[in-house]
Write a structure and sequence with these properties.
Blueprint: E1 4-11, E2 16-23, E3 32-33, E4 41-48, E5 52-58, E6 61-62, E7 66-67, E8 71-74, E9 79-80, E10 91-98, E11 101-107, E12 120-123, E13 128-129, E14 140-146, E15 149-154, E16 158-159, E17 162-163, E18 167-170, E19 175-177, E20 185-191, E21 194-199, E22 202-208, E23 211-214, E24 222-229, E25 234-240, E26 243-244, E27 247-248, E28 252-255, E29 260-262, E30 276-279, E31 282-292, E32 297-305, E33 310-317, E34 321-326, E35 331-335, E36 339-340, E37 343-344, E38 348-352, E39 365-366, E40 371-374, E41 379-382, E42 384-385, E43 392-396, E44 402-403, E45 409-412, E46 416-426, E47 429-441, E48 454-458, E49 466-471, E50 479-485, E51 490-495, E52 500-503, E53 512-519, E54 522-530
Parallel strand pairs: 40-47
Antiparallel strand pairs: 1-2, 2-38, 3-6, 4-5, 5-8, 6-7, 8-9, 10-11, 11-12, 12-13, 14-15, 15-18, 16-17, 18-19, 20-21, 21-22, 22-23, 24-25, 25-28, 26-27, 28-29, 30-31, 31-32, 32-33, 34-35, 35-38, 36-37, 39-42, 41-45, 43-44, 43-46, 46-47, 48-49, 49-52, 50-51, 50-53, 53-54
């Protein structure tokens, strides 16, 4: 059965027709059934090079005849079966293809009866096997790649007898303990060259070794999902939460490497693990419910964030949307729903959207503060842009000066309110963004004598850790070191409690970093450090 719904509208400034296409037609997949004889449930999908879509969840057979037990491969035409799949009660939360092997995780007792395959099973191309250390002691929820390695997150405390703190790293040969999380992890992603983990205790960033740090400000409840917009360098965070700090951000928020952006309450439902994608530059999530008081029902649909606001793409799903993936330029949607738009569904739906022109470019201007202060008649301001892959940048600093680099440093020589604009160009597309900054004199009873303080970084260059020494250190003041990577993301914020501070660089990339001395909220000094 094939169901196609086309929704179109005309923009009369040129008669441009936009359409979205829904479909329940999956060639070779007529039905999915779970062990109890009901509908199949899809919890994860993984696209391998646009050739195979791996589908995992809670189902016994496909097409009411082939026993597959919760994991199949599909090439757009035919089904691939992996022996008898897992066991009859298996639930699969994530699948990942890494170095020619398929990794399957969550809760199950074994894969086709093979030993050492509980909770984490590996298809080696011929049969199922376990890890070299033994099987995890509890559920595996998430796989992600980080600097060429595979990271595994879940609720496990051991692989065999080897201890792990709910997270492990695998380089293809060896497993490594990279830290301790007191409770489960359900979201992992590499963002700006760094590893992020999310779960029961919010969002953390990996510092190397076994060290992690919390991001400043946290979602007020659970984190289930990460999606990375690599072109605009945004990390979207989904889950079961309603606030970021004091700002309403229901189920979704965005971290841009500097600060959080709250995204309002339009997305009303929980964003489940695996239930979000970046598609043609926009974020799509399975959420947004409408409570029907008459029939006592929830209706769920797909929502889209275009960088500034939410809108509903539509669809009427009878139950939760729990998996989304891009496959051959189409969004594949899976879940626990047995009807879609009022018709019987196998728990799988497709959605194709038209190109959105230049909307995929979402420029932002970042600085470490909104207000800067003249020192010796100068205020040095470091600007950052989030678009490393555009063709060109054109800055206007609001004082008749311009620049054409991604992250310029500009010197203001007078007080004032400056409207800074940036125009980015990529191919035939051009986008402009604005930001206001203020430059003031350092005057008043609570002055900071800028000339009294100095910042020294050594050794510089450094092949590892380095020291930050502050001349004029004052315990009565709030002092921070904000260290920025050259790709324009906030590497770390360190609260300074002594004249000399050791900076542990851990797994930092070998590049130049900008170290900013901030005192009582004022930028005092800026120095560069080279890690080589």
């Amino acid at each position: 059965m094939k169901t196609i719904i086309i929704i179109g509208f005309i923009l009369f400034s040129g008669i441009i027709i936009k359409a979205q296409t829904w479909s329940t037609d999956f060639v070779g997949i007529d039905s999915l059934w779970n062990p109890l004889g009901g509908r199949g449930e899809v919890y994860t999908m993984h696209n391998y090079k646009d050739s195979i879509l791996f589908i995992g969840g809670n189902f016994k057979n496909v097409n009411n005849e082939l026993d597959v037990y919760s994991i199949i491969g599909w090439n757009g035409d035919t089904i691939t079966r992996y022996e008898n799949g897992l066991d009859q009660w298996a639930v699969v939360s994530d699948v990942y293809y890494y170095k020619d092997k398929l990794y399957v995780g969550d809760y199950f007792l074994s894969a086709s009866g093979h030993p050492n395959t509980q909770n984490l099973a590996i298809w080696n191309g011929t049969t199922w096997e376990g890890t070299s250390l033994g099987q995890p002691t509890s559920d595996v929820y998430e796989f992600a790649e980080f600097q060429g390695n595979m990271v595994v997150g879940g609720n496990f405390e051991h692989f065999g007898t080897t201890p792990f703190g709910r997270i492990a790293l695998f380089d293809g040969t060896n497993w490594y303990n990279i830290g301790y999380f007191g409770m489960w992890i359900k979201a992992l992603a590499e963002f700006n060259g760094e590893l992020y983990a999310g779960g029961y205790s919010g969002v953390r960033r990996y510092l190397g070794g076994t060290s992690w740090e919390y991001l400043p400000t946290q979602p007020n409840e659970f984190v289930f999902e990460f999606q990375v917009d690599t072109f605009n360098t945004f990390l979207y965070v989904g889950g079961q939460f309603t606030y970021i700090g004091s700002e309403i951000s229901h189920a979704v928020a965005m971290w841009d490497g500097f600060k959080w952006k709250a995204m309002g309450d339009f997305c009303g439902a929980t964003v489940f693990p695996q239930a979000a994608v970046i598609y043609k530059g926009d974020l799509y999530v399975g959420g947004g419910y409408l409570y029907d008081d008459i029939n006592d029902e929830y209706h769920l649909w797909i929502n889209r964030w275009n960088g500034e606001q939410w809108d509903s793409i539509g669809g009427d799903f009878s139950s939760a949307i729990t998996a989304m993936e891009i496959f051959r330029d189409t969004i594949y949607i899976g879940g626990t729903f047995d009807t879609f738009n009022g018709a019987r569904s196998k728990g799988l739906v497709k959605l194709a959207m038209p190109d959105n022109g230049c909307d995929y470019i979402k420029p932002r201007i970042n600085t470490l503060a909104d207000t800067f202060y003249l020192s010796s008649s100068q205020a040095e301001v470091q600007f950052y842009n989030n678009n490393p892959y555009v063709d060109s940048w054109l800055w206007d600093f609001g004082d008749s000066e311009t620049d054409n680099v991604k992250d310029p440093v500009h010197i203001y020589t007078d007080t004032g309110i400056y409207n800074v604009s940036l125009m980015v160009t990529h191919g035939a597309c051009t986008k402009t963004v604005n930001r206001t900054i203020i430059v003031e004199n350092n005057t008043g009873s609570n002055d900071i004598n800028f000339g009294k303080f100095d910042l020294k970084l050594y050794p510089n260059p450094s092949d590892g850790n380095f020291y930050a020494e502050i001349k004029g250190f004052d315990r009565e003041k709030s002092i921070e070191l904000k260290i920025i990577g050259l790709n324009g993301h906030l590497k770390t914020t360190i609260h300074v409690i002594s004249e000399k501070t050791l900076i542990n660089t851990g797994s930092w990339a070998k590049e130049t970093y900008i170290c900013n001395l901030v005192m009582d909220g004022k930028m005092i000094k800026t120095e560069k450090i080279i890690i080589q």
